[in-house]
Amino acid sequence: MKNLIRVAAATFLLGLATVLAAADAAGKWVAEMPGRDGNTMKQTYDLKVDGSTLTGTVSGGRGGETPIQNGKVDGNNISFEVTRSRGGDSFTMKYTGTIDGDTLKLAWTGPNGQARETTAKRVN
User: pLDDT tens digits for 6-25?
Assistant: First the structure.
């Protein structure tokens, strides 16, 4: 019986730690990325967390504000997808990222298969 209580307590604490770590993803994050012609463009990630589910929007550049789909949080790791349209064609970009305090390192694959990376900072 004591072992069962210990296992239940450890499971609860592990679950609580995961939820608390996931809460760190919530907020507004801004990354400055090189754009065309050497201009810098800002990309804003407005993230919301509910348990292990990540929602929110990505905005900036020519894409406007786009909702996040299939978002997940697992400790300090996040993943999500963004579907955009350009020239009558739609494409999905898949993002993965790691949060370390107020820094979010993101990697994603664009419509042409090109992998990109950026670092965003928390702004609120």
Answer: 555 555 545 545 444 444 89
